[in-house]
Each structure stands twice: as structure tokens, then as C-alpha cells.
Amino acid sequence: MNLRIEALPEATYVVPEGRLDFDAAPGFQEALERLLGAAGKAPAALIIDGAALEYVSSAGLRAVLLVTRAAQRANVPFALCALQPAVREVFDLSGFSRIIAVAPDRATALAQAQQGRP
Amino acid sequence: MLGWARAKVHALADLLLVSRGPYARAFDSLILGLIIFSVASIGVESIPDLPQWTMQLLRVAEIIVVGVFSFEYVLRIIAAPSKLGFIFSYQGIIDLLAIAPFYLTGFDARWLRALRLLRLLRVLKLQTHILETVVEERTRELREKNAALEKAQAQLNAELEVARSLQLAILPSAFPARPGCEAAARMIPATTMGGDFYDYIELPDGQIGLVIADVSGHGVPAAFFMAVARTNLRELAVHHLDPGECLAHTNDALCAQNPLDLFVTVFYCVLNPTTGMLRYANGGHNPPYVRRAAASVETLNGAGGLVLGAMPGVRYPTHTVQLLRGDRLVLFTDGVTEAFNPTEELYGAQRLVDEVHVHGSGTPAALVERICQSVTTFAGREPQSDDITLSVLTWGAP
Predict the structure, then answer these.
(1) Do domains B2-142 and B164-394 have the same CATH topology?
(2) pTM score, two decimals?
(3) Domain extent listing, chain B
């Protein structure tokens, strides 16, 4: 899996490309926790753009859950957006879309994240 | 006589060069000392106006050095498995060049004096010698380390194998005996330790609880969490007969003992074996299917709650479905529907529904076998990335 990171003034957008599975999950989690933990340089908001995310396994869901918690601890607004239908279904089925903000597009995601509601 | 002499020479070559014994080490040190000495003596010789006795001493020393080197060179040729191979190898050529100038120039053929410079090549001989010793030493160390690693790996594998059989042993082997009920299940772990499990729980009122669950990730941590989840669910199911209530309590218990932040998706249902009434609750798991006796396939997609272990205080609604005679309940984990084939295509829910629809009329064991085969055939050479678990129940079979 490849991670594209776009740091903009209003938010840092992370675009994971490929499959977020058992093998990719640790690297994904570490990269995002590093973004959140950057001393004095924490992003204004963290948005995961799922447009190029093809598949999420249970280990991938766990990584997303841990990143969500890290964002809460760092007080950084956090949301997901633009999930492909199959990936969206995984978030709905597991109940994750009820505790993590999942929006259709970046603008909505940013607004939801700033309001702190799923 | 000649044969005897040859045998002796071979034995000597073996003793001094091939074996790793004390004689070989002593001979090695001797050669090393002579190389260093001869390189140093070339330097001393170049000093102008040396006294006569020094020149003589150096000359005698040179004869001894070349004598020993020649002896070594001949021995190496004799000991080499391929004589020509050695003569034309890097080391063979260096060894020859280290002694050749002496034989070509004799003691003082002035026109060949320049060749004596070639003796400086003994530095190269020194280098190959040291290199050889270092490589040999490293090879030995590596061999020892590899052996130790292999031993540790074998021990670890043996322990994992035991853990795996323990884990498979806690999965129930038979469904509680109830007239008209027949069940079969199977779990195929992706790595040695799986995170999936299924269970049958005999409840105090005669009803039977059926569980299918999938812990996030796999390997040893998932296997531990699976054992904790299963134990909690079993204990709480006996006290909380309502499936939703049981999941809510299990979730709270898991959140309180979850240092690794793992979670588990659980579908839990309670069957009244007399009436065929099935009550269920879903904690983030793939909704199971009911195959009606008339072959239609329905999804048990009553609203569920969050996966267990992620957040305390979650509520799980309980839903009810009435099974009719000959209906089949098909529980599965996403290892079935999310099996990939070599072209990165997912097995998908539709293939599973088709199998259940077409082949669901036989025994539960036959359907489990049929689906497992369908998935493995589909996956082909693609390695299995997730545990595959299936549990099938028939109610009211004649």
C-alpha cells in the first residue's frame, strides 16, 4: 500500500492507495501517528481520503480505530471521506461509521471533523 | 615404492593444508611469519651500503623463504582437487609470482633484476592469506549462528504447533444433541494461529446459543484475544439469555481487558430447538444467511452494533426470525467472502449465496465442504490471507 500525503493549511489529507490489510496496517498506523505526533507541527485536521482505497481488512479497521484514538488524544479533528462502496460497507457493517466521521467528500469531512461528530 | 611415497605426500598435504588441526594452524602461522619477514627484508635490502654480512644473511634467509614457499606451492598443487584449477586461480598465480623471480634471476642475473620487484607481490600473498583466514573465521561464525537460529526456530514452531492444536481443541466438535437439529462447522486458519472461532452454548433453559466471530488480525495476539472473547461470551450467555444483552455485557468485559486494542466481530443467536424461533444480535459481523426449504436465500440483516472490544457502553438490538422445517442457517466469516484469487478478484457474497442456493439441500457437513472447496478452487494459487470459518445448522429435518 502506498500513502500519499497532502499537507494543506486547513487540513492534512492522507490518500491510501491499494489494500489496507494485515501486512499494510502497521505501516499505515505508524505513518499517521507520526503525523499526529509531530511536535509543534500537528495538522489543523486529519482527513483520510479513501478514493484510492480498494480494500480494508479487520486488521486495517483496527489501525483506523487506533489512529482515531490518537487523533482524539492529540486534539486533532479527524474524519474519513470518499470511501469506495465496498470499503464503506465494511465501515457500516462493523459499526465503525457510527463512531468515526465518514463523509462523502473532503469539504463535508472537514466540516464534520471540526464539529467532532461521526 | 612410488605409490607409497605419493600416499605419504598426500597425507602431508592433508595434514598441513586441508585439515583444521594444530599442524595446519602452525604451518599457517609459519607461512604468515615468513611472508611478513620477506616483505620487510626487501625493504632492508634496498638500503644502500649494507655491510657484507647482512647481505649474506639476507641471501640465506631468501633461500629459506623461497624454499618453504616452493614447498607450500607444490603441496597446494598436490592437495588441490583440480591441479590446473589451482595453478591458474588467483591465489595460485600470486603464490607462483612470489617465488618465480628467485628462480628466474638466480642470485644475480643483472638483466633480470627488474623481476625482483615482483617479490613485492608477496604483499598480495599476505593479503590473500589474511583474507582467507578472515573469510574462514566468518564462515564458521555464520554456520554456528545459523545452527543456533535454526534450533530456536524449530523450538518456536513446535510451541506454535502445540498452541494451534490447543486452539483447535477448544472449538466444539459436536452440536448438542436435539431432535431435528443437525450442524457442521469448519475453521481453516490463515497462519498457524487463527482469530476466527465458532461455538455452541447449551443454555440453562434448553435453548442453544450459536456463535461465529472474527478477531481483528491473526497470529498469536488474535488467538489470545479469541480465547478471552470466547470464555467471556460463554460465561455471560448463561446469565443473559437475551442475545443483545449478552453481547453488550461481553463488550464491556472485553473493553476492560484489552491492552492490545484488538476487537472482535460477533454474530450471536439463540435457537429454541422445539419451536425453531431464532433470536439474534450482531456485533459488527457479516450478516448470516437463512436458506429456506424452498431454496430462497434471506440475509439476517437486522440492525447491529459496533464490533466488541472497541468502545464500552454499546447497545445491541435483538431481532427475531422464525425458522421453518428444513431451513438452514449459514454463519460465516469474511475469510470466505474476501478470499482473493490470483487476479486480485474477491470471492464476494454473491458466489456464497449461489452455493447456498444451489447446494444447500444436503446435509450441513456437505454444504460446509462444498463451500470450502468452492473458495479454495476460486483462490487457486493465491495464498490464504484470512481465516475461513463456516457454521451451518439445519432445523426441523425429518
Answers:
(1) no
(2) 0.72
(3) 2-142, 164-394
